Amino acid sequence: MKYIKFLSLIWMSLYIVGCGSNSETNAVWNSAETVTVIPSLYKTEIHDAFNTHYEYYIKQMHKRLEKDPNGCGKNTTAAAEGGCSDTYVLYDVQTYMQNAIIYADEQSDTEMIEKLLTLVLIPFEERYISKDGLWLNNKDVVPRYRKLWGVEVELPLTQYFSLLTRVLSTAQRHNVPTSITQREIKIIIDHIDKWINTIPLPPTYTKLSDIHMFKIQSALQFADYASQSGIEIEDLDKWKRMVQDYIELQIKPKWEKVDCKDENGNGVDNCLALWRMGTPANSSYAYSGYGLELTKTRSDTDPHAMFDAGGWVKHPPKRAKKVGADVSHGRRFNWFFETVNRFGTPFEVSIPEEKLQGWANNLAYRVSRGTEKDPKFTIFSDGVDGWYRVNYNGGKGPRAGFGYASGDMDIHFVASSYGMLGVYNPKIYTWMKAWAEKHESKMNGYHGGYKLDFYTSMAINMNKELMDLL
Prior knowledge:
By secondary structure, this protein is mainly alpha-helical. 45% of the residues lie in helices and 5% in strands. It is built from 15 helices and 8 strands. It has a two-stranded antiparallel sheet. The chain has a two-stranded antiparallel ribbon with strand order 3-4. A two-stranded parallel ribbon has the order 5-6. Strand 7 and strand 8 (375-377) form a beta hairpin. The two termini are 35 Å apart.
């Protein structure tokens, strides 16, 4: 119960200071009626969680990146170069360390910055570098992903690059030596060059892809590092044009006004969701139109069971007419917003404050549900609480009877990046705190990762300009 009592002190301070104090050691209301949480009270909890999680991932990186000459499928070239690695460890590291580097940047926490730098540079060690020019080839960890054997896989690499480039930029800003070599710089620039040249735009491609957002983040953050370090990026103008086009053509049209009511039942004018879809081609959303009328029970006779006795879905597909990204994947939007607004000035791009305010209102009044004694969060990031990924990837073996139903995504709201938007609507903090108090055992999970994301997301102040981080 230690961290819950600690949170109670934080919230007492927040409400007391919110009534008039402008001390920089607590929480303050600003003229835009947003709240800024100064994270001095979180430091011990964050460091404890970070150190636990850091030690876990140092071991995981070395273990999973170890090359396996028999793990490249039919790619004999990759096998001859020493083998392939489980590059999805890079996916995991970014997911649970992105908040940490943003927090360390804001706090000028050089100890955390140095450790994160050590972590993100592990893939550049000689034993993991491939001589074929592709750098990291993926191991055949998941049999169904045969097309991903022995090749570079964009998702984990782009996700990792969004962390790597932020760490490099942060380290340089706070005078932490990066010791990065010219070969490593070339690998980074070559990858971003390749990615920037292949991002599709409307009308050819209208989906809002998290892979593309990671590419944009990498370009913005590495350009900042290069500017600080005196490194020339030959195609920087091309990077700028793509970033500008992406914001204009992919992000701006995806905002949608949705209905919101605050805790008193009053309508909220500025309430926005991002990218509501319901794509027929995406099977993950095939059952998003069902809700609490169906349960995860496996039964051939119960009409309210989603699955039959064998674990196969027994109801026809039913899609919500409009539905946002699931809460777990939607956390990536928040990192994207933070990067664009802090690194976008040289590229002449930004996310308007009114959009962030509207997004925060959506999170506070639509995605957050129930009561403070029994808080819940919807499955999707626009307030739709349907089913997601029912019988995902074939629904066989461990996936039999699989599907995310109401309540299954709660931890991914509380322990991710949504707390960063609390500076625009502090009700988000209230919901997160209430859920954490009720589900203490779950908060202790994932090797310190859940607590780390929980605390850091509420400690991050997105209103700070990059120049103010020094």
